[in-house]
Amino acid sequence: MTETDLSSPPAERPAAATPRLRVFVSSPSDLEHERALVRDLILALAREYRPYFDLSAVLWEEEALTAAQSFQAGLVRPAECEIVLVMLWTRLGTPLAEEPYGGMTGTEWEFVDAVEASARAGSPEVLVYRKQAPCLIDVNDAARTREAVEERQRLEAFFQRHFFNPDGSFKRAFRQFEDARALRELVEGQLRKLLNRRISAERRASVGAADWRGSPFRPEHAFALADEPVFTGRESEVRELVARLERLRARGRGLLLISGASGVGKSSLLHAGLLPRLLRPFLFAGVGGCRWCAPDLAGQRPLQALAAALCAPAVLGDALAGVGLDAAALARLLARDPELGAGQVGAALDRLQGVEGGEWRLALLCDPLDPLLAHVAARTVEAEACASALAALARSGRIWVIATLRDDALAGLTDRSELAALVDEDAWYPLAPIAPARIRQLVEIPARVAAIEHAEESAVGERGLVERLEADLAAVRHWPPLLELVLEALHQAAERCGARRLLVSDYHALGGLDGLLRARADRLWARLDEDARAALPVLCRALLVLESGEQRLPGARDGDLATLAAHPQAMALLESLVAARLVVIERDPEGGGAAVAPPPAFGLAAALRRLLAQSREEWLVRVGGWRETRPVDEDRPPAEPSLERAPWAEGRAVARLVHPALARCWPVLRDWAGMPEHARALRLRYRLSRQAWLWRRTDCNREYLLGETGHAALAAFVAAHEDELEALERDYLAHSRAHLLAQRRRNRWVRLTGLALFGLLLAASAAAYWAWDASRQATLNLQYSRLKEAAAAIDQGNTPEAVELAIGAAPYLPAAATDTLADAFTRNHLLALAESPGADPERPLPPAFSDDGAWLATLSHADGARLWRLRDGRFVAAGTLAPPGAALDALRVTGGGDAVEVFGIGADGVWRLPLETARAPDWRCAGAPGGVLALAPDGRGLALTRIVDAGVAVCMVDLAAPGRVRWQRVLHQAEIRSLDFSPDGALLVSASRDGRALLLDAASGVERARLPRAGALDRPANRARFDHAGERVAVASADERVRLYGLDGRLLSTLGALERDGRTLRVHESAVRDLVFAPDDRFLVAVDDAGQVVRWTLATGAAEVLGHHGLSVERVELAAGDEEALVLSASLDKTARLWGLQTGRELAVFSHDGPVSGARFSRDGARVLTYSARDGSARLWSVAPADGLSFRLEQDDHVWHLALAAPGDGAEVLMATAAFDGRVELWSHDRAHPEQAPRLVHRLQHAPEVRVRRVGFSPGARWLASAGFDGAARVWDLEGGGSCRAQVDPRCADPEAAGCGGVHQVLFAPDGRWLLTAAEVPEAPLRLWDPADCSALPLPSAFAHDGHGVVAAAVGASADGALLVASGDAAGTLRVMRREPGARWRRLCTLEAHRAAVTDLALAPDGSALASAGEDGRVALVELDGAGCVGPRRLDAGAGLVYAVGFAPDGEALVSAAQDGRAYLWTRAGAPLATLVGHRDRVYSAEFSPDGQWLLTAARDGELRLWRRPRRAQDAPLAAYLVLDAALGGVAYAHFSPDGNSLGAAYWENAAVWWRLWNESPAIDPAWVRVWGPERARLALIREAMRFQRGD
């Protein structure tokens, strides 16, 4: 069929100017962001609606406002605009002038102006929006808050006045929004409605007075020329096509090719969009008119159809007839000579121009052009001639050949070279689908033109029709055909009801989009014959997909059209679906060139070639950009030019369902895909396609090729449907097969090579293991050596070095490192240290300590003089005494506590510090660098030496009187080596290198005596000191002697040699360096260059060497101790050592990293102060160990027992200690501050000089009871105060009586109501007492014994609430008594369990068993129930006497402590579980921790050992987890705290010790856990070690 027309479309109006449409945007300043959003939205709509309107936004900030008038007067009035958009939020705006605005705000006036104009003239249309989001106000700004409230009230009044009636009903409409997104949706939707309404009104008016007849929707066919009023949505495309035709006209070309997917609207765009524009006169400059024709090229004679269309009377019939050309002649001419034929057509147009005036054009519409480009079978000679004729006509420059072409036919252009040569970027226009934003436009404009209404909403809360369609179609790419289908169905439904209204209810009644698609598909399926239906499986496998096993309904897939073309029946079915708009055929631009991979090559040679090529390229690039600088090889043949494909030839044609819902809603597809064999095929096809595309998109990466499993899974599918595979899938399978073959070959070689290498691997693995083991052993040996170094450092008293070495070995040997740390801290004496930066050994600047050791003054070249105070175990800077560069050489500190004074001595004199700025010295008494200083006992006199021309002088200053120098005189001609004041400060003695010592009056400097009186010693005098009585002076000399002088200079004695058996033995074999008198002046201690520390008995002249240093001893000091005097010696061997004066025992070693230059005691003798000039450090030590893990609680006698309890909320733990001096001391430990020592709460007296054997707390710790050797028990009320005494053994009431055995046990009832005592009283060894007043309670008959005293007892409760009491006597007999609630005591059993005395008893936590320990070396285990006893079962480890026995908290194990230095662990059944080995002497105590995970043993060797409880029987002896030694002699008893975090231990050497075991805080540094493990990281020892390492 041929369409021809000469006229314009119906009722065509002359082209008019685009209407102007202005949108006035009004809002206060609190909506700046929303104003910008609305402006951008209007700009976007302006571009979209450009063919219809000149749309613009009017905003005051974009207007050219001048200073000649006010803001409001300079703006366009809202009444002059077509649309006014008002937005309000928290305020109404800024008030305007009273005249002419009536005092209204700018926004209010703009609104009023707009609505009044709208009421008068119907324009502008006013849209009001109110923001509902909350606004944040700073309530601290009262003025701003008040202003905001007032603004809000004005805004509410505005809305009440303009939008609501007095009765509360709405007067005007406004919309509310929450955020910018909601505002954009509201504004865009309403503006589109207003714009579409205007377009509809204009088009309806253009139709004429008569109404539009029929449906404005075209679901079955394209829009025609007459449908221009209802055709919309393609305005931008029409404008672009017109522009392209103009460009082609300027170039003398005429071919315009419009391609696109099926159903995209190519024909509608051509006939209803472009053609009406072309028919407008003078659309193009100089073109007065245009005629058109649309030949039908689908027949067998397309050239004849073309000629017939051109010769139609309404086209060029008359003009061509004038030259004798009819249709047949023109067809022959075009076939024979297309250029000549095109020229004749052009001439005919010229003749038409002469008749009608102006240039005339011909629009030749080839819609579609597909038949001329069909497959090879349709390529006839006439089709080729027709294509040549069209190309010639297009080249003529006077004829527009406008053709449409479906995407899949684009490839056919390559066979029409003449047409293809004309297709360039201007000539080819790929038509894209319409944007989903225009759905509303395609609904509203045609409907309004045809006077059809549509429902905005169907019910309250539901979306309107347009919104519903937008939701259903927005996600679909090709939605216009579906939209036309829906609208036509709704129109027919409305026609059937006699209404012209599209309703949502009708849309739902039709089943929505799914229902309409299903109905159309069913109608099509019903028309198909069986042959067409038989092709469905092929089409389903191409168009459907199931992605995974969980997906049950099929989805849509892109099917390759070239592959489907090999199946004619499937193509026929596909074309039917395309015609029904159920399937879309389009071009996939990324799918072209499926066979992109090189031929598969996976052999060894190919791999080597790839490797060599890659290496060569990398090397060439590395050597300096060879590719860019190498010359062109002239002999090399030029490369063939690459053939680039035209853009329209790229990609591939694919077919896809128009909507994915079709696969789910159409039963034909859904049921087919639901069959198991079909579903499996679809899943396999999905896997194949997905892997193939991944392989292609990763440049054919072999990692994505199929393996053996994948290839086998796809084998059946490929075999069954190989002809349906797409080119990419076939290529992928070919490469996968080749790769599998190469892998199989490689695997064979690998297996053969593997067998050969396996033996080598075994040998290499063995060698590697040996090397690893050797390396591990070497590493462990290195760490063991470091731990040995740490042990040596511990012996030297160098705790910092020992801790550093142990922590370094911890990652490899955590257990051994833990033991080393425990040893280091239990033997540690270091309290604090301070480093002096920039220490110079050639010019030492010694520090100065206060007498109590709490203050330290340091002097360094880098930092000057600084003062430090001891706080929490470290020296903390307390201030600067003098800046760097101050001329100070020495410091002295006087006083102590909070009142100290520091004096600086320099070459110019003595200053009282601090010295903030340079000033004259307070005492002009210069001291020589390195000179000798002496401070008087009262702290007032300071003597210092200086070198003058006449010799060495001594200057004496009075520190209490600034500026006063008592005296200054020359004393010696050689170096003065010491100065010493007498105890009363009245005398001063000096010792000099000249061999003399001078005795001076300290007040006047008058010489009192020379020592010796006549002449001088042969060797230098190194040291001179007074005794404590101030009556004698001892002089240490380099001649290896010590001489004692009276104050009158008389020689009293000489110490240096002993007479033995007629021989003289020299005690000092080198110079005596220093000496000191004992506090009682009975002894004198001297040290020499040989490292000896010698004690001289002054009365007899006897000498005893207390100890040795490795090098010369430079200083010695002496202080009174608790048991004996203490001797402190400082040596060049880097140590200072502490000795017992009487015993000669080495008590402690204090170490430095360099020779110890000085050492002295604090005033109270509890601390030692040392200094090393070489390492520049000053260190403060404790005479007693100070480890930070334990707190020594000193007692006056042996501590034999203790008890612990946690009263109240457990914030504190109480510990009571029992000592042999009759004292019971109560201590409190604060769990919130575990690093603080327990404080003494009470010092209680059981009885003077009476040994206390046991102590115990009542439940809740209200009472504390003690058992003494005096046959009495004492009870203290810890809450109310007071105490009472219970005389258990009447025989002990008389101190002179014999046979008093004492009380062995004091035990409280589980409810604390009574106290049980066990004693060696034959008549009543067990007795009950009221703890409130110590009154005796009636003794139940069940408690009677047969004349034997009780030495062990236990109290407990059974699981059923009955009370239990067990006793063991000196004969080895056990007795168990039981009392049920509300009943009397009864004897449960009496058992002969032991052959000797019972030493300890323990009841299981649930009262179901009793364990006893005896002197016969056995443990007896007795099972208990309400009826009696079962047993005993005797457990004998052959360990001698058993001291203690105890149950685990879960009752499943028990532990015994034995005389052989071991503890034994047993199961509840009596089977041996483990032996705890490590103690070196008898084990007195053994028990489980409260959580049952650990065991604690205490032994006579002085050690506490912690063991991890084993859960299975151990063949080897169990090693200790942690060893703690306080060096206080044997441990009589040890006990866990109730929380298990701490320990209490009773020591034989007059002390109890509180040990910190676990950290109280659950927070553990993860770094500690990585090094020490989760358990050891919780140890308080580890926390203390890390703190010590950091110097905290």
TrEMBL record:
Keywords: Repeat, WD repeat. Pfam families: nSTAND1, WD40. Gene3D superfamilies: YVTN repeat-like/Quinoprotein amine dehydrogenase. Residues 216-700 form the Novel STAND NTPase domain. WD repeats lie at residues 969-1010, 1065-1106, 1106-1149, 1149-1183, 1252-1279, 1391-1425, 1435-1466, 1476-1507. This is Novel STAND NTPase 1 domain-containing protein. It comes from the Bacteria. PROSITE patterns: WD_REPEATS_1, WD_REPEATS_2, WD_REPEATS_REGION. CDD domains: WD40. InterPro entries: nSTAND1 (IPR049052), WD40/YVTN_repeat-like_dom_sf (IPR015943), WD40_repeat_CS (IPR019775), WD40_repeat_dom_sf (IPR036322), WD40_rpt (IPR001680).
